Each structure stands twice: as C-alpha cells, then as structure tokens.
Amino acid sequence: VIEVLKVNKSYTMGQEKLHVLKNVSFTVQKGDLLALTGPSGSGKSTLMNILGCLDSIDNGDYLLDGTSVLKRNANQLADIRSKNIGFVFQNFSLLSRMSALENVELPLLYSETKNSKKKAMEALDIVGLSDRMKHEPNQLSGGQRQRVAIARAIVNDPALILADEPTGNLDSKTGLEIIDLFHRLNKEGRTIIVVTHEQDVANECHRQLHMLDGVLQKEFFKKRK
Amino acid sequence: VIEVLKVNKSYTMGQEKLHVLKNVSFTVQKGDLLALTGPSGSGKSTLMNILGCLDSIDNGDYLLDGTSVLKRNANQLADIRSKNIGFVFQNFSLLSRMSALENVELPLLYSETKNSKKKAMEALDIVGLSDRMKHEPNQLSGGQRQRVAIARAIVNDPALILADEPTGNLDSKTGLEIIDLFHRLNKEGRTIIVVTHEQDVANECHRQLHMLDGVLQKEFFKKRK
Ligand SMILES: Nc1ncnc2c1ncn2[C@@H]1O[C@H](COP(=O)(O)OP(=O)(O)OP(=O)(O)O)[C@@H](O)[C@H]1O
Ligand SMILES: Nc1ncnc2c1ncn2[C@@H]1O[C@H](COP(=O)(O)OP(=O)(O)OP(=O)(O)O)[C@@H](O)[C@H]1O
Ligand SMILES: [Mg+2]
Ligand SMILES: [Mg+2]
Question: Ligand 2, residues B94, B130, B134, B140: which to mutate, most atoms within 8 A of Cβ?
C-alpha cells in the first residue's frame, strides 16, 4: 500500500526555486491499477521518482507498506527497489553497451535470482522482442527500446510497477498489447501506476489521478473493471 | 521536392542481415504535409534518417530538389542539413551540458545566422518554454525536452521539416499546439513529414503513408485541408 502525505518537492537552480509538487496526498491500495495524467511539466515524473524511492522529498511523508521511507537508509531503499518495485523510465534508461537481453537480466543479477537468463528471455518474449535479444539499444527502434525497458521492469515479478509513459513510442496495436500485459499483471495482484497522456490508456485503469501544475486534482472515481 | 526511388536499406549484425527498407518509392511535393505511420520497428525512423541526409542507402536513389544525394559529398550534405532541413529526433538528441537556449541556438551558429540568440528565444517561446530557457536537458521534463528539440528544428526556417514522433511525450493539449505550429509553418510553404503513431495527428495531415515491415503500403489519399 502506498500513502503519500502532503508531499512537497522543489528544485533549486541558482537563484530560482521551482515548487514542483505542492502538498500532494493520496493513497493506493494493493492491487490498484491507477493512471496518473496531466500536462507536460506538471510534475508526474517527479512524483513517480519519489514513489520509486529514487528521489527525496522536501517535506511531508511517503509510507510504503506502512513504513516511512524517511526512516530507511540508502541500502534499504536500494533493496526495496530491486526486490519489490519495477520502474519503467520515461527515457528508458537502458545501458548502451549491453544487449537487450543483458539489460533485462540486470535486475535479476542484483537480486541474485536463479535462472536469470531464462527469465529475461521470457520477459522479452512477452513484449514481442524475442528476435531482438542480441541488439544493443542503438540497434533498436524507439518503441523497441521502450519495450526492453518494460521487460526489465517486470522481470523480477515486482509487487509494485511504476510505468512512466510506457506507450509514448508505440503504435496503437503494440500499445494495447502492453496495456493487456499490465492488466494481466494487475489481475495477479500487482499494484500498477501508469503515467500516461493517452486518454484511452487512462480509461483502461481503475482510478485516475490528474495533476495540474504540481497540484493533485480531486479524484474522478471510476468503477472497477 | 523529394523523390524516393526503390530504396533498400539493411543493417548487418554479425551473421544476421536485417532488411529494413524494401523497395520504398514515393514522391513529396513542395508544401506537402505528410504523415508516416506504421507499427513499432517497421522502418519509419530509418526512412526519416535517409530523408534527412543522415544515413546512407544500399541501393535505389533519393533525389532532393532534383539532385541525387548519391552525387553529393559529405560537406554538401552537411550544408543541406544545416540550411534546408529541420530534424526533430525521436530521442530528442539534445546536448546535455548546454541550456535549452544554447541547444536551440546551435543550428544558427553553424549557419552563421545573425541575431541567433533572439531567434532561439522566439522559437522557445513558440513551443511554450520561455520560462525554461536556462534549464539543461536533465532539468526538464520529457515533454519539455521534446519541445526544445522541436524549437531547434524550426529555428533556422528550414524549407523541409522532418519530425520523428514529435508528440510522443506530450499531453493532448500541448500536442495539439505543436500540430497547430506545423500547420502554420506548412501554410508558409514549408514541406513537413511527421512520423506519428497517434491517428489524430495523422488525420491532421494532407497525406498519409503507412509502413508495414519495411514495405510502404498503397497510399490512402486524403482531401487537402
Ligand atoms: N543500428 C541498427 N542495427 C540493427 N538493426 C537496427 C538498427 N537500427 C534499427 N534496427 C532495426 O531496424 C528496424 C527498424 O527500425 P526503425 O527505428 O526504423 O523503426 P521505427 O518504425 O522507427 O520504430 P518505432 O516506431 O518503434 O520508433 C527495427 O526492427 C530495428 O530493430
Ligand atoms: N532537475 C531539475 N531541475 C530543475 N527543474 C526541474 C528538474 N527536473 C524537472 N524540473 C522541472 O519540474 C517540472 C516537472 O517536471 P516533471 O518531469 O515531473 O514533469 P512531467 O509531468 O513528467 O512532464 P512530461 O509529461 O513532459 O514528462 C518541469 O517544469 C521541469 O522543468
Ligand atoms: Mg515526465
Ligand atoms: Mg522510430
């Protein structure tokens, strides 16, 4: 379960201070499938990086399964990330000198999981890239790189998946296959938060949170699928 | 005017040869606004890189304003790119150590255009980023980086604009502003080719070419807007 309590986050650049997240509060239950929408620059990725324990907050609190992340040290946060959270980065963040397979296998090596190569191949097969395993990122199309990033995020069977614009570079058919994948993973009990600017992707989620200029809007509740 | 004649392009990786563009032929008239669509991995960016004189072809021909690019040397191609073509890269290709303003100003410095700073500021203002001019790419959101890439492509008033997925990271409202911008530039007589996987962006164009597995499909002609 995720509890975000009055989180504020600012970036300081020289004299300028940008207040990007303003008193953001919301709760996510285990097994939710939630869309986070909002204009470009509204603070979605900044919030996702905090949820993924990749960035700090200025004030407020963030509880993951009841424990505040402020009470955990860097090693504990790294441990939580590698075991429980799968993160799809908006800019993919693939390692350029490694093949698609090696990129997807990396989280399994960190968490010392067995059969890492076989699991990485299965994840690439699920996103439709079993014929591109040996390609390095610069030998792949934009949407193929994005799908490698998705495969890497799901390979470790995480309890929480945070996907930042996972279909931005995909055509509708391939994009729907990824949404179907998220539905399947969600039915297995995984909690999923998807940042998207495509309304038909947001409509596929159970809940939708909308961000405007760092302020979370009143939630428009949807019926469960 | 662009004439693509039976272009073939393959990538060789070790023992494997990937035939990515297969006998691609089409013509674009001056002042056309054309959408290029197709599934992820179908060859759109590969074709765009050839049109932008950034990549070579294996056989066939590509005539730009009546002259084959095969007959031009590297200096001439660089000259054509800097003066006549604006390219929006799918992965933005911004220089990380330079501010948004410096990134947009760069093409003007190459072509020794006057008032480069003022023109760069105007281009950033057109894409809605006049309050982010001093930010470096890693201090910008995904969609903001994409808009800096668009500003850089238009700053030199190019006759031909090649935009590879220019709205992939933008919310609908910001995306429509970019499409409106392309409409305005097209009405001024510029030729524009947009790769997109968003059907409503493709519908805003005069023509639509669809790529499937490296083969250009029969064109579905639309009435002029
Ligand atoms: N440098 C390379 N070496 C080997 N294969 C490559 C290389 N670059 C691209 N490819 C392959 O060529 C095919 C076409 O790639 P391209 O980037 O043109 O696709 P695309 O239509 O732009 O896809 P997307 O919509 O995902 O961006 C892909 O299957 C890709 O794996
Ligand atoms: N490191 C940084 N330093 C300064 N400002 C930053 C930094 N990172 C982001 N910003 C600013 O914070 C704001 C929010 O950025 P964020 O990436 O969260 O937006 P977003 O909602 O994900 O946008 P998009 O949909 O375009 O990806 C933006 O206006 C951006 O310019
Ligand atoms: Mg973002
Ligand atoms: Mg592409």
Answer: B140
